[in-house]
Design goal:
The protein is built from five helices and eleven strands. With 161 residues, it is an alpha/beta fold. It has a nine-stranded mixed beta sheet with strand order 2-1-3-4-11-10-9-6-7. The longest helix is centred in the first third of the chain and has 13 residues.
Length: 161
């Protein structure tokens, strides 16, 4: 019995921590594959991917969760992204995205399989922009903290595949 207890203790001490993700909304797209490839497992807590439809009815509750420490991934324009300070810029024309610049490796060539025309967004001033459209510098991915939580915002979904 002592050996079994010792083995269980050793497993708990030396086992890699498990990080979880969940999908809020009815269209998970490729998020389960992306997050699983990063070592996350489906479950409660951890990171929540929030689709626009999931935030339409209860944005104040989502904001409170962010303040309390939740970490979200948001896509495009939604009530929650707007409430978090991500705004569509009404004074500027949409941008055609074909090529992307990663701020961590600007020389890396990133070309989308399919070009997309998207609204021009303005992330909050405190946000760190991670990727931009190559020729026009429109922000495409940004992260920021809010209260005890954080958000990763993407201008478009990564798609179904």
């Amino acid at each position: 019995m002592r050996i079994l207890t010792l083995l269980l203790f050793a497993q708990a001490v030396f086992a890699a921590p498990v990080f979880h993700y969940q999908i809020a909304g009815d269209r998970p797209g490729s998020w389960p594959r992306i997050l699983s490839a990063a070592g996350l497992v489906r479950g409660t807590g951890g990171i929540t991917v929030v689709s626009g439809a999931a935030t339409a009815t209860d944005t104040p509750a989502w904001l409170k969760r962010t303040e309390d420490g939740a970490v979200f991934i948001l896509e495009g324009d939604s009530p929650l992204s707007t409430a978090l300070g991500i705004a569509v810029d009404p004074d500027r024309k949409p941008v055609l995205v074909r090529s992307v610049t990663d701020t961590h490796n600007p020389k890396l060539s990133i070309v989308w399989e399919r070009a997309a025309t998207i609204p021009r967004f303005r992330p909050p001033q405190a946000a760190t922009v991670f990727t931009r459209e190559r020729w026009d510098s429109a922000p495409l991915a940004a992260g920021f903290r809010r209260g005890n939580g954080a958000a990763l915002w993407l201008a478009v979904s990564p798609g179904d595949r």
